[in-house]
Amino acid sequence: MVIPQEVPAIDLDALIGNDLTPVVAVLAIVVILLVLAVVVLWRRVRRLDERFVSITRGVDGRSLEAVLDAHLDTVLKVSRGLDDLTTRTELLEAASRRAFSRVGLVRYNPFEETGGNQSFALALLDTEGDGWVLSSLHARSGTRVYAKAIARGRSDAALSEEEAAAIRQATA
User: Fold this and answer.
1) All structural domains of the chain with their residue ranges
2) Which of 91, 114, 119, 124 is the most exposed place for a label (fewest CB within 10 A)?
3) What is the rounded distance in angstroms from the CA atom of residue 171 to the CA atom of residue 150?
4) What is the pLDDT along the chain (172 residues), one digit of tens a residue?
5) C-beta separation of 104 from 166 below 8 A
6) Please, which residues have CB within 8 angstroms of residue 42's CB and are 6 or more apart in sequence?
7) CB burial class (10 A; 0-12, 13-18, 19+) of residue 167?
8) pTM, whole model, 2 decimals?
């Protein structure tokens, strides 16, 4: 068990004495320093407030909220436009797979009595190698045109040397 001891009382009157001048002078200096600190802080807050207002004012004197709303509307429009473009691109890519993108042309002279390589074999294929080969045989008596279906770069019908060369040219 601890026995509490008495704390001796401090006599402020005896400490200060009869002369309060130094205490008042110290307190006056502290008050003046505090007033100066308040003035400095007030000026800094006012400058920060002016900067904040100038930053948030935005273009044409509009508020920052109005500027952000305008930017958000623009972003939403661009997003919708991008979605539309993506859809259109997918449709075009699907259509382009079936379009003739590979072409091979071989001109030749099948008959000795005609000149000028007026006969030809034209292969028109899509990206999968599907399509057809068109052959035109030109002779003095007339011109004959033949078409053969091509699937995956091959034909069910027999191909002439020129038709096979046109297909090889198209798939190269």
Assistant:
1) 21-57, 58-97, 102-171
2) 91
3) 12
4) 667 777 777 776 666 666 778 888 999 999 999 999 999 999 999 999 988 877 777 666 677 777 788 899 999 999 999 999 999 999 998 888 888 889 999 999 887 766 678 899 999 999 889 999 999 998 888 889 999 999 998 899 999 999 999 999 999 8
5) yes
6) none
7) buried
8) 0.52
d(CA 158, CA 14): 130
155 close to 125: Cβ distance less than 8 angstroms: no
Which of 113-138 are b and which e, b meaning 16 or more Cβ less than 10 Å from the residue's Cβ? eeeeebbbbbbbbeeebbbebbbebb
Question: Do the beta carbons of residue 167 and residue 123 sit within 8 Å?
Answer: yes
Pairing label, strands 119-125, 142-150:
unpaired
Q: Is 58 helix (H, G, I), strand (E, B) or coil?
A: coil
**Rg of the chain (C-alpha set):** 48
Distance of alpha carbon 32 from the chain centroid? 60
- Give pairs for 91-100: CB < 8 Å, separation 24+: 96/127, 97/126, 97/127, 97/128, 98/126, 99/126, 100/124, 100/125, 100/126, 100/131
